[in-house]
Nucleotide pyrophosphohydrolase (Cobetia amphilecti), 120 residues
Amino acid sequence: MTDPFKQLHDAMEEFSAERDWDQFHSPKNLAMALTVEAAELQECFQWLTEAQSQELDEKQLTAVRDEIADVQLYLIRLAGKLDVDIEAACWAKMEKNAEKYPAEQVKGSAKKYTSFMSNR
């Protein structure tokens, strides 16, 4: 795991150890907690229009920051449990996405790659 993920991983390890929470942090439980935090992030935008979601007030933005941090911290903790290098995984996934979504075929489209695969 690379910096800053390594530093955050180490801090999360220490935080959990101080509270004896490692017993609860199985990959399954962390993945489940991650989905809860992602839902809490979605809740920050629930009922907002597209325009409102792009112009959050300071209270809304603070809540969004907190939920983004929660999501990221659970991802870092899960990655640490499974020995996944987040940065390397992200770069590898970007390469896969570039292959699945060639710019010349998908530019301006939100369709899933399976809808245009037959055109390749």
